[in-house]
Amino acid sequence: MKEYQQIYRKNFSLILTFLILITASMAVAFYLAYNLTTKYVENEFVSQKIEVLEETVKPYNNFFQNKIPEISFYQGYLDSSQAVKYVDTILRKFRFVDRIVFYDAAISNHKIPDGVKVNHIAIG
Fold first, then answer.
1. To 5 degrees, how large is the angle CA 113–CA 119–CA 120?
2. What tens digit of pLDDT does each residue of 37-93 get?
3. Other CB atoms closer than 10 Å to residue 96's CB: what's the count?
4. Under a CB-based contact definition with an 8 Å cutoff, are residues 82 and 74 in contact?
5. Where does 63-123 have alpha helices with state H?
6. Cβ within 8 Å of residue 115, ≥6 positions away
């Protein structure tokens, strides 16, 4: 018995068209991947930049929103020893604070030696 051999005809134009189609689709895929990756990296950079800014400003916000209003809780009853403790905690915790100045204000209808008296009200 004679062995049957299959012989295929090669269509070079079809092979060439297929290779051009595959090359073009790969080029489009690479272009789209590059653009999408670029946008993703830019978005991640912007979001990380915002997070870094929030972490940088966090001590300042804590100081101005929590520690400065804490003075009003004392309602004028902060003596010198409590003021020293308060200043020590603030200066240790927040390195950007250089100095803290407390003023003692007095309002009275009697004369205050280093104050101003106007219409029976003395402020010093």
1. 55
2. 999 999 999 999 999 999 999 989 988 898 888 877 777 777 778 888 888 888 888
3. 7
4. yes
5. 68-74, 80-93
6. 106, 122, 123, 124
DSSP one-letter string for 43-79: HHHHHHHHHHHHHHHHHHHHIIIIIHHHHHHHTT---
How far from each other are the two terminal CA atoms of the chain, in whole angstroms? 127
Contact in structure between 107 and 122 (CB atoms under 8 Å): yes
Predicted structure pTM score: 0.51
Strand pairing category for 121-123 and 107-108: antiparallel
Q: Is 90 exposed, middle or buried (0-12, 13-18, 19+ CB in 10 A)?
A: middle
Strand partners, 108: 122
